[in-house]
Amino acid sequence: MNRNGSVSILNKIAILHGGDSLRSKSFRGTVWMSGGNGLEQGLRLIRNMILTRLLAPDVFGIMAIVLAINLAFQSFTEIGIKQSIIQNPKGHERDYLNGAWWFSFIRGAGLYYLAYSGAPWIAEFYNNPELTPLLRIAFLSIIFNGLLSPMAYVALKRMDFKRWVGVYHSGGVLGVLSTICLAFVIPNVWALVTGFIVEAVSRFILSYLICPFRPGLNFARNHLKALFNYARGMLGLPILTFIFLRTDIFVIGKLCSASEVGFYSMALSLAQIPIQFSTVITEVMMPAFSEMQKNFQRINQSIYKITSAIAFLGFPGLVFVILYGKNLLSLVYGTQYATVAIPFAIIFTTALFRVCSMPIASVYLAIGRPELHRLFVGIRTIMIIIFIYPFVNKFGLTGAAAAGLFSMFIGYFFQVSKIGKITNLNLRRYGLIFLQAAGVSLLGIIAWMILNPFLLSLPLFGLFTGMVTSLVITYIAFRLFYGTGKISTIFTTE
Question: String of b and e for 117-137 (b: at least 16 CB within 10 Å)?
Fold first, then answer.
């Protein structure tokens, strides 16, 4: 790229960063969310690298079950407070926020009572009495999450992402650092549970420090009705999402040993890093799509651009994980975790396509049609319920990962088909994105075939070579993508 081209790009970035248009807000939001999320996920990776060398695999297996059950209780009564505030044009008004806060508080208090009472039965199901106190402490996060200041969601609505980063990702960082410190003092599962609670408490406190709010008793009937209507549209969606995401842990926890659950859960944690970064898409694009919800042409153009960015940057990473997953797991967690290299690659594939589906999911939520998103989440949930048990029973951990991938593809197919009818998305153009990205990524396979015979005795050097190759391919993909004008216009649609 010549000097004039570089200056041009820098000028565009300066304009986007300083403007007050939707595209400028989206650009700044992406920068803030990427930075905050990148810091938190980087620290989580470092935490896991440290903890896998301090704690036994069965500790992570027990914690995976605790987290899955905690998410289960929250999902069964999720009413979409955050999404309703962002989507509703009057979601920032005081009367609306009062209703949202009391809804969330009552839900959290009632849910904690049920979860606390049910902990002994859950422990009995898994034949592990140790789960009862662990669950009762972990369930405290439900209360703190329910008491989060609704003004933090208003910050998202107004695309003031630096405040949300200060609340959400700073709380995550504090939780991660606490867990690392506690693991040296309490080298067992209690270090993980305590760090989990510290994370929830930190977000609760930071939400009121950064986004102050004092709940009141002033309500407006039309606002309460709007909350109920949106909650009705969301009904069942979090449950279905939870079942799809955590059914594998429940089934593996019942059919396999705690150590196997630990191996699988840590591979899952590493493979789902793309999902963690996808929060940038959902948090930035939902308010942006909400602003343009009447203009389907703009929405379609945004879907093409975002999906292209994900595919062209994600497919080289997928090739790297498939070819070098065993080496990567050995480096990050230790050699014993290399046994789950195949499930790791399958889970990563599922995660990548789930990220690709998120722009479309954000559109459904932004235009006030959460029931459509619920439909497609329901399809993939039904699929995984059908296939998870026989797959795990016959193929073990690999079967669990494969059931998730198969279910994701089916749900994604129907989701894309529907959006084509609603917004007139060009499905041929959409599908061509993936073919082009896959074509570019073939360079990684060719490089591996050429270099691998010389690197078999040098696994770490082979991993380094694979990383460099992947970065080169990503750069080539970026240049091809940028050359078509897509990257440069992601935030420039008026």
Answer: ebbeebbeebeeeebbebbbb
